[in-house]
Write a structure and sequence with these properties.
153 residues; mainly alpha; Receptor-associated Protein; 6 helices; 0% strand
Length: 153
């Protein structure tokens, strides 16, 4: 699914929003970062995203910063948008990680909403053409025998 052009963007942004929202809620509740990352990995739907988040949890447990771990692991798979990693880095530097993750979650949820709205407006004319073609086919298939019977008389 991550190879299909339009759907891959939706999957990436949905999983990024899940990650940001869950991490934000857990960190603001006082849950340690490593445990927050492990819980977040269980929330994320996609297997590749789950592997990256678990990898980040291992790296954070060894003493790395979460933003550095996300950046290193993301270079291989290119799953999380660069904005997510940069804003996470800013949040770590300012000490406002949970607030920054909450803003990121809101941003990506808005992006997903916009993409789905645009996608439905693109699909709508295509469906109208398909339904119109089907109705036209049935109309011709009903009227053609009537004309052939009238022509035979």
């Amino acid at each position: 699914m991550l190879k299909i052009p339009i759907i891959s963007n939706i999957i990436r942004e949905v999983n990024t929003a899940y990650t940001a929202r869950t991490l934000s809620a857990l960190i603001s509740s006082g849950v340690p970062l490593v445990l927050s990352l492990k819980i977040t990995a269980s929330v994320v739907d996609n297997l590749y995203f789950r592997d990256v988040v678990l990898g980040v949890a291992e790296r954070v447990q060894k003493g790395d910063k979460a933003s550095m771990a996300f950046d290193d692991l993301n270079k291989e798979m290119n799953l999380f948008p660069l904005v997510f990693i940069q804003m996470l880095k800013v949040g770590e530097e300012t000490g406002e990680t949970s607030k920054m993750l909450k803003k990121l979650a809101e941003f990506f949820e808005g992006e997903v909403e916009e993409i789905t709205k645009n996608l439905s407006s693109i699909i709508e004319p295509i469906l109208i053409l398909i339904i119109g073609g089907a109705v036209g086919f049935f109309a011709v298939s009903i009227i053609q025998p009537i004309y052939s019977i009238m022509g035979a008389m």
